[in-house]
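Question (not urgent): is this output format expected?
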Amino acid sequence: MKKNALLTVTIITTLFISLLILGNAFGGEYRKATTDSGFDSSSSSSDSSGFSDHSISHSSGSSNSNSGISLYSYEGLMILIITIVIIIVVFIVIPYFSLSKFFKSIVPDEEEINRLLIKYNLNKDEIIKGAYDIYEKVQIAWMNDTLDDVSNLLSDDILNMYKTQLDILRIKNEQNIMSDINYKTGNIIKIKENDKSLEIDVILIVSCKDYIINKETKEVLKGDKEKLNGYKYSLSFLINQEKIDKCPECGAEINNGGNCEYCGTKITRKNKGMIMTKKRMISKWYE
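Got this back:
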């Protein structure tokens, strides 16, 4: 609500300022044009006959000016409207939604995360540890070309992507060495609940040696086997959960929370596994 109110006030303020600035600009330009025209007419008259001609010319000029006001005002109004729309879209609407999306992606909603952790009896540290364990196992399997051993930890999409990339390495007779993998820090940035599963986004920072060699000659083709790389990842996981609709003690319907609302029994949902569904590298550096 606060964001919507702020957006509304900003748009109205910008609209008002735009009207003042552009209206003043168009008005000033019109007044300047009228004065210049009148000055030229006056300076051209030199006698009584000229004065009479000047009177006629001025009257005609007034008529043209009136006609010009109507036409110019219409054109000015259209330009004003288009300009205001462009200003609002470019400087307010697009940045607002872009920044809103950006901040939502990097600033965790701690209250919602904690609510869902409590509801599903999950431990934050255990989830982050589980995320790192999956990451490490997958990286080792990737290096050793044994992805089938970790197929239960990956979604079909990411598994097939890895297999395609390994096929390319095999054709080139290359191997991606990833060793000395160490966990640095991590955090849960989002939890979304579905009917029978939870989608969890984790930020993970690790360090490791990462380089490519020729399988036969062991020559380093890319990277540096002596240097540690730092990586910041955005990882997404899916946790399938046992669905419990009724309290095992009193039979009451379970709506939310970690305890039955009627008898207070703690509701424990069994996790059916945690799999990685997305992996995106945010940044990389040498340590």
